[in-house]
Amino acid sequence: MSQLTKAITRQLQRQYAEPVFKASNGTWYTGADILEDLALCETSLQQQNVHAGQAILLSPMQAMTIPSLLLASWQLGLTVTLTPPSPRLPELAPQVYAAMVYSPTQTNQLATQLDPSKISVLTLILNTAPNFAYLVHDHAQPLARHSQPDLILPASQLQFTQSQLLKLAEHGHPREQVADLYDFESGLLPCLTDLITATPITMQATKNAFLPN
C-alpha cells in the first residue's frame, strides 16, 4: 500500500459511518460504502489475475466509481489510464490493458463482440453503481516502458506517480463540489485533496452527462 492509498483509506476508515460523497441525485455515500467498493474491486481484479505491472483503462460514465477503482488499481500496482467516455462505441482495447471499464451500455454492446477465450465480462454490485461491469483481457502482458507512471491522463497528456499525486493533494485546496473527475486541476486533484482531508464532496453532473449510462 502506497503512502497515497494509505492516507486516503485511513481517512475513509475514520469517516466509516459519515458521508463522504454526495451524488448529483442527492444520495450520500459513507466511508464504509467507498471502502466496501474498493475491497470488492480489488478482490475481483485479483481473482482475474490482474496484477502489478499491468495496466487498466478507466472510462466509466458512473463517476462515483472512479475513486474506488483508482484506489483498488493502485493498491494492486496497476498503471491507470483515465480517459473521458466517448459517445461512440469504443473498439475493444488492445491487449496492453489487462482490464477496461466503460459505461454499462457500451460494455453490454461490446460483450456481443467478445471472444470468450480472450476477454471476459465481470459484473459487480457496487454501492456506488449497482449496474457495474468491466472487461478483462485474460492474457494481457505487463507494460514495457522506461518509466512506470501510476496515472496517465491522455486528454491532458499528463502522467503522475502516486508519490507526486500525494504531494499535490497534500498542498491542494479542498472543494466541497467537484464537477468532472476527468479534469485533473478542477476535478480529480481536488477530489484527492478532499479524501485526504476528510472534506465531504458533492459530485456535480459532468460535461459528459449526455452519454449513455
Task: Describe, in plain words, how this protein is organized in 3D.
By secondary structure, the protein is α/β, with parallel strands linked by helices. The chain has helices at residues 3-14, 31-47, 66-75, 104-111, 162-170, 184-197, and strands spanning 19-22, 28-30, 55-58, 79-82, 97-101, 119-124, 132-137, 151-153, 158-160, 177-178, 201-203. The protein has a 7-stranded mixed sheet with strand order 6-7-5-3-4-8-9, with helices on both faces. Strands 2-1-11-10 form a 4-stranded mixed sheet. Strand 8 (151-153) and strand 9 form a beta hairpin. The longest helix has 17 residues, at 31-47. The two termini are 32 Å apart.
Pattern of helices and strands: HEEHEHEEHEEEEHEHE
Widest β-sheet, arrangement of strands: 6-7-5-3-4-8-9
**First and last CA, distance:** 32 Å
Low-confidence stretches: 208-213
Structural class, by secondary structure, is alpha/beta
Helix content: 25-40%
Number of strands: 11
Q: Major β-sheet, in short? A: 7 strands, mixed
Keywords:
213 residues, alpha/beta, four-stranded mixed sheet, 11 strands, 33% helix, globular
How are the SSEs placed, and which strands pair?
Elements: H1 3-14, E1 19-22, E2 28-30, H2 31-47, E3 55-58, H3 66-75, E4 79-82, E5 97-101, H4 104-111, E6 119-124, E7 132-137, E8 151-153, E9 158-160, H5 162-170, E10 177-178, H6 184-197, E11 201-203
Parallel strand pairs: 1-11, 3-4, 3-5, 4-8, 10-11
Antiparallel strand pairs: 1-2, 5-7, 6-7, 8-9
Helix pairs in contact: 1-2, 1-6, 2-3, 5-6
